[in-house]
Amino acid sequence: MKTPSSRLYDLVKSLSSAERRYFKIYINSKEAFSSKYVRLFDAIAATEHFDDEGLMRSVYGDEKVATRKYSELKAYLYELIIKSLQSYDDSSSVDYHLKNQLLGVRTLFKRSHFEDCKAIMAKLKKTATDYEAFNVLIEILDWEKRIAYAQTDISFLDREMKRIMAEEAEYLDKLANISAYRNMFFHILVGIRKDVSRSKTQREEFAALMENPLMKNESQALSFIAKVLYYRILSIYYFSNSNFELFYSVSKNLIKLMEHNKLMLKEDVSEYISALNNHIISCGRLNKVEEVRKTLDKLNKVKPITADDEVKIHRQYYMNKFRLCINTGEFEEGGRELKRHLKTAEKFDKQLFIKGNFYFQYFCIYFGNGDFQNALDSLNEWIN
Prior knowledge:
The protein starts with 6 loop residues before the first helix and ends with a helix. It has 19 helices and no strands. It has three domains: about 5-90, no CATH class; about 95-150, no CATH class; about 195-384, Serine Threonine Protein Phosphatase 5, Tetratricopeptide repeat. The protein is mostly helical. The mean pLDDT is about 90.
């Protein structure tokens, strides 16, 4: 017997409260709320555990329904949620907005509305430049040539081709530069995860990687995105070598770089969360306790953009906060933070926090507060 798929269930459960509200608004503009797929959506949102037969009964009651019909309903709801998320992202993500605007250019071009295409492209180019959307900028340049060709505008091509070719070359160079840094970052990251012993072979391999001309200095990185990757590579390299002074210095420079570009932070904070976490670790290694406190406060105030951001902020804030309280002996403060953590963590997937290091921290905080029963329970959970 085929096991029912939980893809739809997992998708609905992953939606933030804002995304769920948006979905209801999105479908209300299309069909009545009494539809079966809406009942299925609400049933999934209300359940705690995946039960495909129970969900089917919540939609159809005692009515006998072919399995195929129910499968089609689930497939329809899944696609509808995806479309609503795309619409949601279009209103909140610059990347989605740029791509949808380019689709608008394509639509207008097919109908020979060339001047309208140019008007959209002029606005797009500024936004794409601000957000370093080099792929979009290359596509805009291609549309400039295609529109001029369609209009038989030879004077435009004669006048602008040199400029277009220079801009294309610049954007391609920047994309290649980003790709090279990203490949280096993943290479060193995978190496560290595969060889946690920091063997001599690994150290030699990483040292050779640092000899790459791109790692000579920050000026080799041709864009903000590339500069972030440059510092991420240095950060992970110095940490792997236990060079905590340079790890601290690089992590501080990376945070400064990111905070200077407020525009990019509005679009994506995931790298910023990781940078703050690394800086907290570097400060802890050098016993810079007050800087740990300040950076923890900064991390806790980051406004998440995605559900993953929210989980990362929570997990990294509390893991570092507990470590600070344990190391400084501030067990009462740790106890208060532990209560807040456990209460807030209820809305997340429990599996995200069933980790040995968390349970050991629970044990230390409970033990430090003289709560020996909870300390013992946490220790048993950790051992298990």
